[in-house]
Amino acid sequence: MNSLIKKIKNGERVNFDEALSLYDFDLFTLGSLANDIREQRWGKKSFFNINRHINPTNVCKDICKFCAFSASRKNPNQYTMTHEEILKTVEASSNRGVKEVHIVSAHNPKTGLSWYLDIFSKIKTAFPHIHVKALTAAEVNFLATEYGHSYDEIIDMMVESGVDSMPGGGAEIFDEEVRDKICKGKVTSDEWFEIHKLWHERGRHSNATMLFGHIEEQKHRIDHMMRLRDLQDITGGFNTFIPLVYQRDNNFLNVKDFLSSQEILKTMAISRIVLDNIPHLKAYWVTSTVNLALISQEFGADDLDGTIERESINSAAGAKSASGMPLEEFVSLIKNSGYQPIERDSLYYEIKAW
Ligand code: V47
User: Fold this and answer.
1) Alpha carbons 80 and 55: distance in angstroms, whole number
2) Terminal Cα distance for the chain, rounded
3) Mean pLDDT computed over 18-35
């Protein structure tokens, strides 16, 4: 244990077995190691952005067992927004100071490819100053398969339509056995990586998520991080790692034991240590709860996502995030927790120290 602590303090890279053994450390040793890394890089800065989540449709061809948002089985209320509705939403958000729209849809086979792509070009035409973060690798895979295009072609169309960066969704857990049990038939792990690699090769940035706290084991989380670290060594295109805590309501994954806060914080800290080449670690308050996200700042996290305004995917599964977070409250929560709220743009350039 002591030699591993020394290694981490020296900034040396940990291997799979070492990373897994970090779960045996006590919480505060682990927290202090991760916090050292966070403070060396970012001091007491905690980043956030003023953003809006939009989920244009919940009609989905795929059946992920953890998902409560898709209207395929448990949720009978199907919807598909018109472009006019989406533009009105963006206009209202832009008037409130939103600088990024985060657009993630279900895999709707009825709309046609241009319905997806025109959302972005119309937003960019009307609101060129808004950063469009859109289409998870799972959606890219769906559009390519459904409409007979290569990933390269879909990605070129995204760029042409005005997508600025890609969100990190669809990663779930990369281990193939676990993945088969929770979301069989969706984008495979290799495909997820291929899509992000192609995106990075165009000089673009993306994020990476990990859905944890369901049926996976600690070793699967470490494997997930290692695979991300490997691609990041090649491309350097990931901005942020985002561990998403599994939400339990209204879905088909029969999970009996839920994670303790301690296990969530350990996972945050371990990801800060393992992912030495991804600059930011996001504590996504939507899935961790706001309190745990604030505490995560002391366990390696330097980013708290944003104000969001409306959240549908996790709130469908029980998260208390449907109406986002008022800006003033967000800023004062960060300040009161002892950190400096830094409003950032989507690529982490600093806009304002609040
Ligand atoms: O991939 C679905 C997750 C993701 C549940 O890039 C669930 O900045 C917990 O992409 N419990 C989509 N999570 C969300 C996403 C995202 C979110 C925040 C920030 C960013 C970013 C990207 O939502 C899916 C899936 O892993 N999800 N159901 C659930 N029951």
Assistant:
1) 9
2) 40
3) 98
Beta carbons of 46 and 341 less than 8 angstroms apart: yes
> Which of 314, 315, 321, 345 is the best mutation target for the ligand 1 pocket, counting ligand atoms within 8 Å of the beta carbon and taking the most?
314
What's the pLDDT at 74? 56
Question: Is 67 close to ligand 1, i.e. is its CB under 6 Å away?
Answer: yes
The C-alpha R_g of the chain, in whole angstroms, comes to 19
Contacts of 25 (CB under 8 A, 6+ apart): 1, 266
pLDDT of residue 73: 61
Q: Is 104 in the pocket of ligand 1 (CB under 6 A)?
A: yes
C-alpha–C-alpha distance, residues 97 and 92, integer Å = 9
Residues 75-134 have pLDDT tens digits of 678 999 999 999 999 999 999 999 999 999 999 999 999 999 999 999 999 999 999 999
CB burial of 308-320 (b: ≥16 within 10 Å; e: otherwise) equals bbebbbbbbbebe
d(CA 78, CA 57): 8
Tokens 């100053």 sit at which residue? 129
Which residue is closest in CA terms to ligand 1's atom 16?
Answer: 169
Query: CA–CA distance from 123 to each of 23, 90, 108, 156 (Å)?
Result: 44, 8, 20, 18
Atom 10, ligand 1: residue with shortest CA distance:
169
Question: Is 281 exposed, middle or buried, given 0-12, 13-18 or 19+ CB atoms closer than 10 A?
Answer: buried
